[in-house]
Design goal:
- The complex is a heterodimer of chains A (about 150) and B (about 80).
- Chain A is of the alpha+beta class and about 150 residues long.
- Helix content of chain A is about 25%, strand content about 35%.
- In chain A, helix 2 packs antiparallel against helix 3.
- Chain A is globular and about 50 Å long.
- By secondary structure, chain B is an alpha+beta fold.
- Chain B has one domain: Roll (Ubiquitin-like (UB roll)).
- A 5-stranded mixed β-sheet of chain B has the order 2-1-5-3-4.
- The longest helix of chain B has 11 residues.
- The chains are: A alpha+beta (about 150), B alpha+beta (about 80).
- At the A-B interface, strand 5, helix 2, helix 3 and strand 9 of A face strand 4 of B.
Chain lengths: ~150, ~80
């Protein structure tokens, strides 16, 4: 059976219902959906407010790496049926979903939660997307910490 | 000599002031050599040289990798999507 994999780097709004429908099969009985959201008020660490975020991507490499994340999920959790990995780019305001990782499975207890968790963690490590944070005091590029190995 | 296209993203694009540059470099140039060359042209790159990532033809590359002819090179900071 062919399992659906949806990879999308887009300026458009995320349509959760449509994405979920596209990865739901007759055998599907569970899904885990993670979405990241633009946070207006950050209290952890360096407390600050956010007016909006500007996202940019190295598009062709980002799409390749998102596909790689989906492949890694399937290798680790062969029970996963559908996978959707979506990253929005452009200007995004607080309260807006920015990214989505959704996995579907026959049952909830065969790795679907872990697979979605792995997906977002991995996206934040290897998919070449960056955000610039614009706050009341000015703007700043956010930088990650992870340094992928050659070929990773 | 060979032609390469070098793309910059996020902070590095701001430092260079361009989305990409096209360069002629000697055959056998490594990523590390290219970083040095760029830092001599764009001094603001010097302080991020050790932390920036490099990709060759859209795959993460090592500093010692020799740049293949006609390659698309990209330099960028550690990613921060999601």
């Amino acid at each position: 059976m062919d399992f659906p994999t949806i990879i999308s780097l887009t300026e458009s709004e995320l349509d959760l219902d449509s994405l979920l429908a596209q990865i739901t099969l007759p055998t599907t009985g569970a899904s885990a959906i993670f979405t990241g959201i633009v946070r207006e008020q950050t209290s952890q660490g360096d407390a600050h407010d956010t007016v909006y975020l500007d996202y940019e991507a190295y598009q062709p490499m980002a799409e390749t790496k998102m596909r790689q994340v989906a492949d890694e999920i399937r290798q680790k959790w062969p029970t996963i049926e559908g996978i959707a990995i979506v990253q929005r780019v452009g200007r995004l305001y607080p309260g807006t979903p920015t990214t989505l990782i959704a996995c579907t499975c026959a049952h909830r207890n065969t790795g679907v939660f872990e697979a979605a968790r792995y997906g977002i963690d991995r996206l934040k490590e290897i998919v070449p997307v960056w955000k610039k944070e614009i706050g009341p005091q000015g703007e700043e590029w956010v930088e990650g910490q992870y340094h992928p190995k050659p070929g990773e | 000599m060979q032609k390469v296209k070098v793309l910059f993203f996020a902070t590095l694009r701001d430092y260079v002031g361009a989305k990409y540059v096209e360069l002629e470099i000697p055959i056998g140039t490594t990523i590390h050599d290219l970083m040095d060359l760029l830092a001599s042209t764009y001094p603001r790159l010097e302080k991020v040289k050790d932390s920036m990532m490099a990709a060759v033809d859209r795959e993460y590359a090592a500093d010692e990798e020799v740049i293949p002819e006609g390659a698309e090179i990209a330099f960028f900071p550690p990613v921060s999507g999601g």
